[in-house]
Design brief:
The chain is an alpha+beta fold. The chain has helices at about 15-25, 50-60, 80-90, 120-130, and strands spanning about 1-10, 30-40, 40-50, 65-75, 100-105, 110-115, 130-135. It folds into 2 domains: about 1-70, VC0802-like, CATH 3.30.2130.10; about 70-135, ACT domain (Alpha-Beta Plaits), CATH 3.30.70.260. The chain is built from 4 helices and 7 strands, in the order βαββαβαββαβ. A hairpin with a 4-residue loop joins strand 5 and strand 6 (about 110-115).
Length: about 140
């Protein structure tokens, strides 16, 4: 499991640039980034090379942040890679709250970042089926 940072920001011109510049100025490297719009405000979810530093920089800049555990699981870069992962989760009768895709720069493989109420159970299930969970040695 790894930490994800969620940030709540206004849905207005320049808001994302300002948020990302705050992190850049703090020397934070983003590993994954997704935005979700919800009217006047939006949620930005991200993985960073320094999640604690990212939260500190964003909080200091006035952002409301939340740091939470998620799974980041490597999948094969082929047709059906994600389908296979989801099949394993469904066969185990487990549920996913949300997911998004990223890329592991080290291995060059796609990574699925997912959140569920059963993080440890989902991680154990996937690892037992041969998936590699980032953050796990």
């Amino acid at each position: 499991m790894i930490y994800q940072i969620s940030v709540y920001t206004e849905n207005k011109k320049g808001a994302l640039r300002t948020l990302v510049k705050t992190l850049s100025d703090a020397g934070i490297d983003l590993r994954a980034f997704i935005t979700n719009e919800n009217g006047e405000f939006g949620t930005v979810r991200m993985l960073a090379d320094d999640d604690e530093g990212a939260c500190a920089a964003l909080t200091e800049a006035g952002y409301l942040t939340k740091r939470s555990l998620v799974l980041a699981v490597e999948v094969s870069d082929e047709v059906g890679g994600l389908a296979g992962l989801l099949e394993v989760i469904e066969e185990a009768n487990l549920n996913i709250d949300y997911l998004y895709a990223a890329w592991d720069r080290t291995t060059g493989q796609p990574v699925i970042v997912l959140h569920t109420e059963s993080l440890a159970e989902v991680e154990s299930c996937l690892v037992s089926k041969g998936y590699r969970s980032l953050g796990r040695e």
